[in-house]
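// run 5 | inverse folding | seed 20
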């Protein structure tokens, strides 16, 4: 998944930004009894995907060595690295849940823990990621049909999942398929049938209840105490029996979710009042949502079976604290100024808190929190959440707050989570309005609100069809609405994001689109946005990704500095083979722009169009540029150096390149470069030597007489000359167009 992207990259937390065609190249292998699978693990991608025995890592040069146990099924290829890296890889295989950096909880011997010894790992082997392929639509169906022998049951489950957009998208995550199958199987086969879940909160609420019921039945069956006519225990009785343990688990989930921890030690559990031995006996749900693994140093590490389970239990705990007015917990979360708030204000404050979280760590948590405000989602918990029935008026105020939430300066991915919170509240109005919008022909006449744009961004991003072009100017909305549409770049070929007030957060979204596998983006225009140095660095991280296939990049008037230009060029040098057009015009690069020459001279550079007008370049830049083009001259077709103080000396250097037999330049623009008749003579001389390619020459603003331009016009006598357009002015104040068709 895209970017299942890092949470900062994903429009929906817990890997909701996956595209179903990501796994078409390597379909998942199904076993006799399919089980859950983590969708993201931070493991060394080269060895797990490509390396054979004896191969060397292209990054660090380490060589592989066959050793059983680390590859699935019959594959036994792995790598012989230093001991520290092998230990970390092993731990990651059993522990890590997502691409975001995972932290461990507290431990008495912190200096000895594995993740605290991460410094032993070579830098080139750190932060390398592999994608665990998600399910395609066909594979989803295969999963459910292989899980159930009852064909009618599997068909009903598949039909329900397809009818719910949220469940259908979430089931691209293998472990979510297991959760969904567990709940729907129970609800479709038990005597106490109700409405099937449509939202994640509803689904996870029933998942807890189903596990508890299952454990109770197994316990009775094992002890042979089940009597005829005995009724199933009600949700209230079941939840009351495990209330204390569930709340302690919820506290553990919440406190460590805030810190970004998904791995816990026994000390962390004890701090939350959890006795592992006792809980495993008392709680019927314990082993189904929480697990422990023995890793190196004879330490036991605990984790929830999936990150989303931790997020859900954290929300249950927080809602319990709210209804029971636990001021200490609420003040720690919402601020010291907290006093009891109405449900709508409490949820608004929680949403504002999550929006400020840059990496989206609280996205799913706050989504579950909103879902738990509905009475229908509280019933499976019995009295665990207290007296929480909210009036229709309060629920409507919550919905209105979500629709009107201000996200200025916030990542557009967080805006999409607002839309998901609406769906968890069973408010489908925005979704339905966008569906109608997509059916209309004159879309420009429809005014879109910010929340409409978030919904539209989500729907277009998750569409099976890749959008040909995203042009933010074509949407009838506000600046904030335009910004909320930027996540669509993850599923389009051309993106025109000009003059929209984009910032670093939007550059992060674009970078995630360039990093995604596959990356569809081929043309990107972010001109006239003040990206600043931080924004350009984010963008550069995407450009250097091996998944990036960008062919045209336009950053005209983006406030690029000398240092930001350096980071941009460094990224292009590391991944040069696809870019054919680069426009950095109207940025004050000055002669630091010569760093661009590092990109131009490398053999893999395929740049055909280079625009550097109004960049404060001088003769020094011309010298470096010509040197680079001579090293790799055969691809460049268009060069624009207009409005730079090149003077005659700079043009003379350019003419050395034009005379080269390998030069294939077709368009040269030198408007307002403070040139004189000397430049005309130099250009005429160069074109006589190599006349066969240049079709257009622009010299507007050149201080010349008609006789000076005649030197160039006389080139029409040469049958080899391809020059079609020659543009110049007679003086600084009077414009004259000289057009000569010389072919």
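// decoded
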């Amino acid at each position: 998944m895209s970017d299942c992207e890092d949470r900062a990259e994903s429009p929906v937390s817990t890997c909701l930004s996956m595209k179903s065609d990501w796994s078409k190249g390597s379909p998942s292998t199904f076993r006799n009894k399919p089980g859950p699978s983590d969708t993201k693990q931070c493991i060394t991608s080269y060895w797990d995907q490509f390396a054979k025995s004896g191969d060397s890592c292209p990054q660090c040069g380490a060589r592989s060595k066959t050793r059983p146990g680390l590859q699935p099924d019959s594959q036994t290829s792995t790598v012989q690295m230093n001991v520290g890296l092998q230990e970390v890889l092993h731990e990651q295989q059993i522990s890590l849940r997502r691409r975001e950096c995972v932290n461990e909880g507290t431990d008495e011997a912190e200096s000895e823990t594995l993740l605290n010894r991460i410094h032993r790992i070579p830098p080139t082997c750190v932060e390398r990621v592999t994608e665990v392929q998600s399910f395609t639509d066909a594979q989803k169906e295969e999963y459910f049909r292989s899980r159930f022998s009852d064909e009618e049951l599997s068909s009903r489950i598949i039909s329900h999942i397809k009818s719910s957009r949220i469940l259908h998208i979430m089931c691209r995550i293998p472990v979510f398929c297991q959760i969904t199958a567990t709940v729907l199987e129970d609800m479709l086969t038990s005597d106490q049938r109700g409405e099937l879940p449509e939202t994640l909160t509803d689904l996870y609420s029933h998942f807890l209840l189903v596990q508890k019921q299952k454990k109770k039945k197994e316990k009775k069956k094992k002890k042979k105490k089940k009597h005829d006519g005995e009724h199933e225990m009600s949700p209230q009785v079941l939840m009351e029996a495990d209330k204390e343990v569930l709340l302690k688990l919820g506290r553990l989930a919440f406190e460590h979710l805030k810190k970004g921890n998904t791995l816990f030690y026994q000390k962390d559990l004890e701090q939350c009042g959890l006795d592992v031995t006792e809980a495993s006996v008392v709680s019927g749900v314990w082993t189904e949502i929480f697990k422990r693994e023995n890793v190196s140093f004879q330490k036991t590490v605990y984790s929830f079976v999936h990150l989303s389970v931790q997020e859900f239990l954290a929300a249950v705990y927080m809602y319990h604290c709210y209804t029971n007015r636990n001021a200490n917990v609420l003040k720690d979360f919402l601020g010291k100024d907290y006093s009891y708030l109405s449900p709508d204000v409490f949820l608004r404050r929680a949403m504002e808190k999550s929006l400020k979280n840059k990496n989206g760590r609280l996205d799913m948590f706050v989504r579950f929190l909103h879902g738990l405000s509905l009475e229908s989602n509280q019933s499976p918990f019995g009295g665990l959440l207290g007296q929480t029935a909210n009036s229709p008026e309060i629920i409507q105020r919550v919905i209105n707050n979500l629709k009107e939430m201000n996200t200025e300066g916030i990542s557009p991915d967080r805006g999409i989570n607002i839309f998901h919170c609406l769906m968890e509240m069973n408010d489908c109005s925005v979704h339905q309005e966008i569906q109608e919008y997509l059916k209309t022909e004159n879309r420009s006449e429809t005014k879109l609100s910010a929340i409409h744009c978030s919904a539209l961004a989500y729907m277009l991003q998750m569409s099976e069809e890749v959008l040909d072009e995203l042009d933010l100017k074509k949407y009838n909305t506000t600046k904030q609405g335009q910004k909320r549409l930027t996540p669509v770049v993850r599923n389009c070929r051309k993106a025109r994001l000009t003059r929209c007030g984009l910032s670093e957060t939007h550059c992060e979204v674009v970078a995630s689109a360039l990093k995604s596998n596959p990356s569809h983006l081929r043309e990107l225009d972010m001109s006239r946005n003040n990206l600043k140095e931080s924004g350009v660095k984010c963008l550069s991280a995407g450009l250097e990704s091996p998944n990036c296939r960008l062919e045209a990049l336009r950053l005209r008037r983006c406030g690029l500095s000398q240092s930001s230009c350096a980071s941009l060029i460094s990224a292009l040098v590391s991944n040069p083979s696809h870019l054919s057009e680069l426009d950095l015009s109207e940025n004050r690069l000055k002669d630091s722009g010569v760093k661009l020459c590092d990109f131009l001279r490398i053999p893999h550079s395929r740049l055909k169009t280079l625009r550097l007008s109004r960049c404060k370049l001088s003769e020094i830049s011309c010298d470096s540029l010509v040197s680079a083009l001579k090293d790799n001259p055969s691809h460049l077709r268009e060069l624009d150096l207009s409005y730079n103080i090149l003077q005659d000396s700079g043009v003379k250097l350019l003419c050395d390149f034009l005379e080269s037999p390998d030069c294939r330049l077709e368009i040269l623009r030198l408007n307002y470069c403070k040139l004189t008749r000397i430049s005309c003579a130099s250009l005429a001389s160069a074109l006589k030597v190599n006349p066969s390619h240049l079709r257009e020459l622009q010299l507007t603003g050149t201080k010349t007489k008609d006789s000076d331009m005649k030197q160039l016009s006389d080139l029409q006598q040469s049958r080899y000359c391809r020059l079609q357009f020659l543009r110049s002015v007679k003086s600084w104040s009077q414009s004259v167009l000289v057009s000569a068709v010389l072919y």
